[in-house]
């Protein structure tokens, strides 16, 4: 008999496990709420009063844990919400009617917002779906214009407007988002017709073996893995098959023809049995491979939450998990089972009673050489059970069986014991993360620790890290860093108290950067606390950047000098040189003799290098007496440049400065030699020489330079630099060399509207045509505008 303790109810091949009695107190249940629950036992968001739409009462947005404990609550003061949903990192998305998406954290704190585009804003949101893909969290929207807009990853918004659905005159009866071949698509039902929309096409598809009685598809759902699809028709038939619509798995008649409230897949990973759940008001029907259905009556308004290995059912009073009975559990607990695991469990029970039957059961298992299999079944079944007592019973039976095996590897048993201890801790009512073992393994330990940290459950997160022996930098140290960053944002305690608490707590933690914690304190407006925390940072290189950011320049320079790192000192000096005026800069250097001495050394090194470069240049000519007047003038200008720099202010050495100086005084050959000797990237050298020649307005030399070899930076920079120096004549020389992608920009730069139009039309690029159109004058470019508009219309069609 199944050890339920009234927590598990068997429904044929399925079982329904009560996870929690909900801690919330909802007067009207979920009746007037817009509900969104995150997968993997995540939080639940309710927008109460959403369907009431009373002008006098604002809706209330509330966030709860899966056990119904409140996390956040605030009145909704923004626009009309069409959909709520959770991201992969447990942030709440609120999609408004105007296409604006607001993002909140788990505690109701506003993080940011983004728009789904002007078209969505103008035609309004009709329906929306929030989905998870390999790229992150996505948003799909059906607009009032009956067009679909898709964003696959909200952290890197790239809006895609999908093709039109032919013959669609009103909102489709149903639609869903599919992820296939790392691409997100939309499956749309228009009556009995099905279409798949991707980036480029709208493709009609036909489910194989769909009941001919159906005249319309009224509901659809995709499995958690996006591999399977279920369709409900107006005749009450549920068709189940693969999401690529190439294979039919089953079709069942529910005998109910009214549209349901919700539909979800209920299939374990690697299961061979198709199974879907359909929910109407007060009724839940499970359909599978056989023609019979399983019915379950619901007392309250409920919401289905698809999971990796089942479906969660949330009502106003209870939270339950509906799933297929795992194979190992079925083998062990089914009536009169003779499976090895079942016999081992009975043997252990008899052993505890000190009965000789234990020996009989063990002998029977051994005779079939199935004792290892029996132990494996008990361990696996323990992982699928939610009741700790049942888990212990199965693990004790497995441990009992291991005693009679000489070479059974202990890793599986030990790992399961650890996993279950962690799972039981996070399933606790006060934590409210009802993960199954299958979900836990898919989620990984790192993600679970992130979830605990996000919920500010730092002690539990640390215990989990220690118990699972997570590497320090991934586990305890990382959790403590998050705790410290949270601690320094608290306003109730003084800087001294917080700094001491952080230093004591983090004293033995490895690899923690105090500068990151100090940065968080500074961002929270606690500059003095940030300075105190930086005292604990052993690496000066980590202290200095934040001190400079906080405008604590003298302290930053002192810390850099204390470190003994000359490069760090010089970095601070150069930063101060750019930030301070000349007087303040030299006053600060005079108060820091070490920094001043180092700065002078760098200056002398640069001057020496530049002078050496000049000497080498003239030595290469092998005849100083034969120098031309032009060479003498170049040398004179070069020496003056050095003198000006030395008198004006101290300057630091850099290869770029050296090359720029050589180029600016016309010593191109030596600049090129430096470029070769120091292996300066081609693009960097070409940029430096291009700018230097343009600033000198040496257009003849610039033209020769452009012809030496193919430019690694292209020829658009040649056009732009000539225009910048008001020489359109020279700029036009380089337009023909520009790549096709940059032709339009080049022609526009020199004011050649005809050329720009030709280039845009030839490339059939709608964006480029629009750019040229925006630069045309209605009075002088009338014929050209007509031609461009015709080309744009053709480009849009294609």
From TrEMBL:
InterPro entries linked to this entry: VPS16 (IPR016534), Vps16_C (IPR006925), Vps16_C_sf (IPR038132), Vps16_N (IPR006926), WD40_repeat_dom_sf (IPR036322)
Domain of life: Eukaryota
Gene Ontology BP term (one): vacuole fusion, non-autophagic
Any one Gene Ontology molecular-function term assigned to this protein's record: actin binding
Keywords: Endosome, Lysosome, Membrane, Protein transport, Transport
Gene3D superfamilies from the UniProt entry: Vps16, C-terminal region
Residue stretches making up the Vps16 C-terminal domain: 512-601, 602-792
Chief location category: membrane
Pfam families, per database record: Vps16_C (PF04840), Vps16_N (PF04841)
Domain Vps16 N-terminal: 15-414
Membrane topology of this protein: Peripheral membrane protein
Chain ranges passing through the membrane: none
Cell compartments where the protein resides: Late endosome membrane; Lysosome membrane
Family: Belongs to the VPS16 family.
Function: Plays a role in vesicle-mediated protein trafficking to lysosomal compartments including the endocytic membrane transport and autophagic pathways. Believed to act as a core component of the putative HOPS and CORVET endosomal tethering complexes.
Protein known as: Vacuolar protein sorting-associated protein 16 homolog
Natural source organism: Cyprinus carpio
